[in-house]
Known about the structure:
Elements: H1 5-53, H2 63-73, E1 77-82, E2 92-104, E3 108-120, H3 122-125, H4 131-134
Antiparallel strand pairs: 1-2, 2-3
Helix pairs in contact: 1-2
Amino acid sequence: MRSEGGSTAVAMSAIVGIVAVLTVAVTALGTLYAARAQSTNASDAAALAAAVATYPAAATAEPGAAARAVAAENGADLLACACPTDTSLRPRVVSVTTSVRVEVPVFGEVAVTTTSRAEFDPIRWLGGSGWRSHNPGRTS
C-alpha cells in the first residue's frame, strides 16, 4: 500500500496559494476602486469650483487655482483645467482632469485619472431664470 500523505500536503499548498492570489487580487481591485472614487470626487469638486471662478464677479480666485486647491483638498493632483475666464453672461462649461496616485499590491504605484465637466450660468447665479437664454425659440 502507498501513503497518500504527500498528495494531501500538495493539495493544501495549492489551496493556500490560490487563496493568497485571490486575496492580493481583491485587495488590488479594492484599492483601485477606492482611488477611482476619490479621483472622481476630486475632479467633480474641482470642476464646480473652476466653473464658478470663470465668471470674475463670482470668483475668489483664478479658475485654475480654484480647481487646483479643491483637487488638493480632496487628495488629488490637478492635471488639466480647460476653464478660461469669461466676463460675458453666457453659460460656460469647464473640463477638469485630476489624478490620484495609489500603491497597488504587485503592480506598485498606479495613477488613477478622471475627467469631469461642470456648467456655470451667470444669469442663473445672478437670480435670473436663464431659461430663455437656453431656449430662445420657445416662449411658453
